[in-house]
Design brief:
By secondary structure, the protein is an alpha/beta fold. The chain contains eight helices and seven strands. It has a five-stranded mixed sheet with strand order 4-3-5-6-7. The protein binds zinc ion.
Amino acid sequence: MNFSSRLLENAVNEFSKLPGIGQKTALRLVLHLLSQPSEDVGRFSESIVRLKKEIRFCKICGNISDAEVCEICTSPKRDKTLICIVEDTRDVMAIENTNQYFGVYHVLGGLISPMDGVGPSELNIEPLVERARTSPVQEVILALSATMEGDTTIFYIYKKLKDFPCKISTIARGIAFGGEIEYADEITLARSIATRVPYGV
Ligand SMILES: [Zn+2]
């Protein structure tokens, strides 16, 4: 692409680094921004800068949060003895949308993937073990996608937690939700949590 302006080129290059955005789409977005009032573009860029600068991760569950401890972990209505283990914040949002789950979460921040160089120490797993050791956890539900990485992660966590007195279960894997729990429809997802099965090897 030949650009008439270096500023335009820089902006298009930055946008095209986003997932699913090619150069043509990036150019369309940049030209759209250029046509908007300055205040709108200012708000847009400020929201991104503040997002990166101010966002925090809940020190209990690892979910994205505005405060040191997230709203789910601080809520007196949530059952702190039931922990649902998920890959990332999108899964928390998907499960919250079902309005059927009243436990708390533990967000791993990814899945074990030796091919991508992601080992257990890169993930929020040790704090989970610590949590199981120090708080009265009765059950952990492994709600991870039915992929090789999901299975590897489930097995690793199972080995870490199997000597604790808590139950370990997985969401029903036979249900077709395309592998990624964030894409599951709410009824299917709620049902797969309700019909979770004990995990064992
Ligand atoms: Zn939390």
